[in-house]
Each structure stands twice: as structure tokens, then as C-alpha cells.
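ESCALATION

Customer reports they have been waiting on this structure for their group meeting. Please prioritize. Original submission:
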Amino acid sequence: MSPLGWVVVAGVLASAAAGLLWARRRLLLVSVVGRSMEPTLRAGDRVLARRVPLARVRPGDVVVVAAPAAMTAGRPTRPGDTGPGLLIKRAYAVPGEPVPVDRVPLLRQRPERLVPPGQLVVLGDNPSFSYDSRECGYIPESDVLGVLVRPRPRTD
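Update from on-call: job pushed to the front of the queue and completed.
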């Protein structure tokens, strides 16, 4: 191969590596475990989430969050860690919105009337099978990992 050919190959490989790095920093691929988001999502579905700050989350968005420490025996996990640790839920109330005490009685104990800055209220679509803000309260901004872009087709 000529020197120009090697330069082209090196350029293509560098571009591919840069593209993969960009995608890894901005996207998250998560497999659904459990029934908490049925009928929207089923166990085994894979979803693609875009990493966004809490300020870009809107009520009704399906979000990926790190599981609260109470759920993971004090060891919350992050992408790349082994074992459970991520939850897929629907954003119900974002900072500045009224605290939904009718849907999340646990928050009645809190003094604020509006969801505080840096906090999120999440609920599963299937309440009977969902561990969400009804059990753990607010999800802190640091645990918000992304917003669902779209489910990936099942490969049964």
C-alpha cells in the first residue's frame, strides 16, 4: 500500500475512534429488567438514552437514573459497574413544579411545596411493580443519567 493509502486508513480509523468516543460520552444503551415500565417497556427491551442534565428533563420523559443507595445496599452503581444499579422510570415532576403529594405520599413529610432545585420525582408506568419516588423520595440531579431516545427493536 502506498504512503497515501496508509494516511487514508489512519484517518478513517481516527475518525471511527473519535465517533465512538463521542457516542460513549453522549449515549447510553440500557437493557430493561423487570416490569416497572410495562406496557411502555418490557423486560429484555433495550433502550438508547441521551445523556442530558436535569435542566433538559421534562415531565413525561422516560429517564435512566442511578438506583438510590437504599435500593442497592448502600452501593449505588454507575454505567460500567457490574450488577444492578440503573432504573428506567418516567419523570413525573421536575424542579419548580408542585410536589406531587397525591401520587407520592412519602413527600408529604417534606416542607417544600415545589420540587427543589437539583431534584427529580420519578414514577414507573406499572406502579405495582415499581421501585420509584414513592419509596425513595427525590432522585438527586447527580443520579440523572439520561433521557430515552428510543427503544431498540427486540431480538427474540
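Sent to customer with the following note: The mean pLDDT is 82.
Escalation resolved.
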